[in-house]
Amino acid sequence: MARSIKIFDTTLRDGEQSPGCSMNLNEKLEVAAQLELLAVDVIEAGFAISSPGDFESVKAIAGILKNTTVASLSRALTKDIDASWEALKAAVSPRIHIFLATSPIHMEYKLKMTPDEVYESAVAAVKYAKKLCSDIEFSAEDASRSDADFLHRVLEGVIEAGAVVVNVPDTVGYVTPSEYAALVRGIKQQVPNIDKAMISVHCHDDLGLSVANSLAAIEAGADQVECTVNGIGERAGNTSLEEVVMSLAVRKDYYQAGCGVDTKQIYRTSRLISGITGMRVQANKAIVGENAFAHEAGIHQHGVLANRETYEIMTPESIGLGENKMVLGKHSGRHAFEDRIKSFGYTLDAEKLDAVFEQFKVLADKKKVVSDKDIEALIRGGAFAAEEVYRLDRYVICAGNTITTTSTVRLLHQGEQVEEVASGDGPVNASLSAINKLVDVDIELVGYQIAAVTEGHDAQGEVNVKIKRDNKVYRGGGVSTDIVEASILAYLNAINNMLQLQGGQ
Ligand code: KIV
Ligand code: ZN
Question: For the segment 198-209, what is each residue's pLDDT rounded down to a tens digit?
Answer without folding.
Answer: 999 999 999 999
